Amino acid sequence: MKRNGGFRPLADIQEPEQTLAMTTYAEVDPIIDAWAQVTVKKLFTEWADQPARFAYLPGLRPFECFQISIDPPIAGRVAVLARSVDTDDDSEFEQHWEGTTNALPALLEAATATVRLWVNRSTANGS
Question: How confident is the model over 37-91, as pLDDT tens digits?
Fold first, then answer.
């Protein structure tokens, strides 16, 4: 018969170890945090129970939304991706940058500037 009605006693439950996945962004988090404080309203740090770093930037037109995401650094290199999430004219945008972790501030600035160009684009109907 199982003790405690099939439940394991607390002594049998091990605390989860801090895995590499939990610290994958530690090297670049100060850079990302500094960028997020001046650029976006909210920085998301998790997606589907996994570490992630991304933010949404609104467009000027109703319902438009863009995203900038940062991949975890690998071997001193990092990638940044800017993309459209939703546009009012069905335009689709996506651009990718890669560089050393030291170049991350410049990569984030390039991504932000690119999204601002997309936000301020003129459409086929001139608006």
Answer: 999 999 999 999 899 999 999 998 888 999 999 999 999 999 999 999 999 989 9
pTM across the whole model: 0.79
Burial environment of residue 124 by CB neighbours within 10 A (0 to 12, 13 to 18, 19 or more):
exposed
Strand order in the sheet with 65-70: 43-47, 50-58, 65-70, 77-86, 94-100
Residue 36: in which H helix or E strand, if any?
helix 29-39
> How many angstroms separate the CA atoms of 122 and 84, rounded?
15
Which residues, 6 or more positions from 110, have their beta carbon under 8 angstroms from its beta carbon? 80, 97
CB 108 within 8 A of CB 32: yes
Q: Is 89 helix (H, G, I), strand (E, B) or coil?
A: coil
Q: 90: number of CA atoms within 13 Å, CB side?
A: 2
End-to-end Cα spacing for the chain: 73
